[in-house]
Fold this sequence. Notes:
This protein has 19 helices and no strands. It is mainly α. Helix 5 runs antiparallel to helix 12 (242-271) and helix 17 (366-390) crosses helix 19 (427-453).
Amino acid sequence: xxxxxxxxxxxxxxxxxxxxxxxxxxxxxxxxxxxxxxxxxxxxxxxxxxxxxxxxxxxxxxxxxxxxxxxxxxxxxxxxxxxxxxxxxxxxxxxxxxxxxxxxxxxxxxxxxxxxxxxxxxxxxxxxxxxxxxxxxxxxxxxxxxxxxxxxxxxxxxxxxxxxxxxxxxxxxxxxxxxxxxxxxxxxxxxxxxxxxxxxxxxxxxxxxxxxxxxxxxxxxxxxxxxxxxxxxxxxxxxxxxxxxxxxxxxxxxxxxxxxxxxxxxxxxxxxxxxxxxxxxxxxxxxxxxxxxxxxxxxxxxxxxxxxxxxxxxxxxxxxxxxxxxxxxxxxxxxxxxxxxxxxxxxxxxxxxxxxxxxxxxxxxxxxxxxxxxxxxxxxxxxxxxxxxxxxxxxxxxxxxxxxxxxxxxxxxxxxxxxxxxxxxxxxxxxxxxxxxxxxxxxxxxxxxxxxxxxxx
Length: 457
């Protein structure tokens, strides 16, 4: 065969795993869309009402604080992914910074579980009130959610290019839904509708410490709407020129979504009384109904279903790539790095995370899973912000983005504050997260035992 034939261009197997490398199919524009699509979705469509119940009419305040916290941590991720452009994300950074396999596994497991709890919350939202608007409550929500997870797993297995292209379509739809909400708000203001005075009402049930704690609690729950930008670092091995592409993609994506969230929060509080908003699991549908502009409620419900679909798809992709990365780092069994030869997608990782997601769907509920997602990621963000400072002593040959030192310091402090009991997080969230971590510790111990038995430790 000629040296210029197909064999010359065939991907060479990874020396460590023996598997073909992942396909680099994500360019700068697709990455920005990926980040925006990953952040937008379940959080804003499903939990806006519950945030309003914690903060009152000043619904915009938790989203503003969450936006700032997200930007601080995004700066750390932008530096680290440019420095180490490989899948595994926070797990890779933790291992390089602290050289403690046990801590690395716990962080990696928390990231994976956060993605799965987020995808599961999205799946339940898909089978919940927005679907009920179309079926009048006839569809069995849990069954719909399970089938939904399986369908998205099949799409992820087909290929990263197909999945990211589906993400482009779903992102366009979910952005259109939020733009509709913003447009409704503009119309309401021009028509003299709404209650502007409600926007200044902060009702957390007290003053002083209670006020601060209440705002932190609302922000911690609202932060679920911002999770997602960290997922893109697990696509580093499938991105073209990641050192150059990632910093711009992350910052643009977070800025776009933060602006949209603030406008949606303002419109929601302006048009819908706090009590009615907090009582709904489909809060943005309540905004459409309250506006009186004649927009079809069923059509908006369909848009919302597309939005939560996007969140679930990207989180399943993230979790499966994280399994692939951990396996290549020998944190999980080597078999988790197995790639489907023709499609070049991490087949074992996709099957594994799908089974876990189905289990969460069958045993959880939207609010609890969303809050669990936020808590797990805030803990991880604290570690990542500290890791970026520790790794400043590790020099690499290529150029990469370097965040101002103050940003990771403030990022670590803010993440720890929102993860702490100051945020009035329900006890069941800590219990669920604790159980997940204990499961992770058990898996880590089992993997270590197998490696020792094989003489590979």
